[in-house]
Automatic annotation (TrEMBL):
This is Transcriptional regulator. CDD domains: SIS_RpiR. InterPro entries: Homeodomain-like_sf, HTH_RpiR, RpiR-like, RpiR-like_SIS, SIS_dom, SIS_dom_sf, WH-like_DNA-bd_sf. GO terms for biological process: carbohydrate derivative metabolic process. Signal peptide: none annotated. It comes from Streptomyces echinoruber. Pfam families: HTH_6, SIS. Keywords: DNA-binding, Transcription, Transcription regulation. Residues 15-91 form the HTH rpiR-type domain. The keyword tRNA-binding does not apply.
Amino acid sequence: MVVEKVKETFQPAPAALAAKVRTLAPSMTRSMQRVAEAVASDPVGCAALTVTGLAELTGTSEATVVRTARLLGYPGYRDLRLALAGLAAQQQSGRAPSVTADIAVDDPIADVVAKLARDEQQTLADTAAGLDTAQLAAAVTALAGARRTDVYGIGASGLVAQDLTQKLLRIGLIAHAHSDPHLAVTNAVQLRSGDVAIAITHSGSTGDVIEPLRVAFEHGATTVAITGRPDAPVTQYADHVLTTSTARESELRPAAMSSRTSQLLVVDCLFVGVAQRTYETAAPALAASYEALAHRHSPRGGTTRR
């Protein structure tokens, strides 16, 4: 009941639909791309079309139209058409344009905070519900016993990669984050059985992340993919796949931003799981790192003099 309420409340804005089409286009067939591009570029016109009409307009089949609607997040074409009709009504009413999927350009800042918080909560809940705990447990086991862990990520995912490596370092594990694709590959060559390589990519098709993971995989390292696309290219080189969810996208809040919330949840799950498995060494290491930094958080700052 709650999910249905969210779907009815948050109709996608044209900018959000266009952003989603751009994000998913690489994973679509050419015929599906034609359907997606049509509804994104002319939501008002497509809202007036039946499934047969849209299929004829795009030179595809009714089955392709339905598959495209589902890939875009709708149960079927009827739901997509209703959403497009809502957008048409919104445009004709002259209401303020949307900045994100449900935030208008003239919304008070308090409403912006509330809506973004609700979006983040839903993203986290969706990620937790869809996370394969067996895959997570296997990844934790591999990390806890790894000689070394390399983490690959570009852009926003690169920040998540850094977050994971810093957490592992704080509990005494050897970990490196690589955002430079050349360094990532040259380091991946050195990995072997007993090491772990983790690729973080929402789209699952980022070549600069896939390449080092492939090299690590071929050299015998245990590989993990954190991605929003369970059937993405990156998964073919992953021993374990951890799937994330993402909030509704828009021009100002694309997947690269909204996906980071769910990626960080997965990273925290990995870290806590590893800390549990290695508690006898992790707890003293974490305490030592806190002590080493304590003077930097003192009221006067600087190094404590004796």
